[in-house]
Amino acid sequence: MGKRRLNYLVIIFNFLSFIFGAAVLGLGIWAAVQSGGLNNVVNDVMYAGIYILIACGAVVMLLAFFGCYASVAESQPAIVAYCVILLVSVGLEIASCIILFVFYNASRSGLSDSYMTKYGIDTSITTSWDEAQLKGKCCGKEFSSDWDKSFFYKANGTYPLSCCVRDAESNIVDLEKCNNGEHGFIYTEGCAWILKLYYYAIAGTTIPAIMFQLISVAIIVCLYQYIH
């Protein structure tokens, strides 16, 4: 394969890396900011992984431009620097994904522990769950009936107000029917789907991003041999 074709391939794969890097950055920010309060009730290590991905996404976007420059300029030092930094970034991305998936079960367990024993007692936990349930239109971990075993429900005989279906003006449709757990007046789906969405979305963008980055490294190494 000629040097010119290698240059084109480097540019193409760096462009793809830029797109997926932007996706990783955007999804990381979305997961960290629009978490619906769940960041206060799940494992802190999981969110450390998200913040690492945010940094990696930004680095990948910058490296995409640097990779194109190194290829077009045919600069050996630039190519070496590009490969080293990109491989470090890939390593961090892989580590972040491992962290996220290893601590997934711990995060789900954190959801149960927080509302079963601390809702209505711990102000930060209570606020976090209310925010998560209102934003996510969900109730409990897997189902609204999960609350039946909680300290809050046993003490009060009611579901949290944030579980109740609301109208367009954010008013509870029917509080009595909500407390009775009647379908249509209480959110029946649990909030665990929010965590699942984060994992699937991040994995769906990070894995292709890593793949394109590794291909870019392989191609630019071939280019390096041409100009060595």
Automatic annotation (TrEMBL):
It is found in: Membrane. It is a multi-pass membrane protein. The keyword Transmembrane applies. Belongs to the tetraspanin (TM4SF) family. Pfam families: Tetraspanin. This is Tetraspanin. The chain crosses the membrane at residues 7-33, 45-72, 79-104, 197-224. The gene is LOC100179718. Its main location: membrane. GO terms for cellular component: plasma membrane. Keywords: Membrane, Transmembrane, Transmembrane helix.
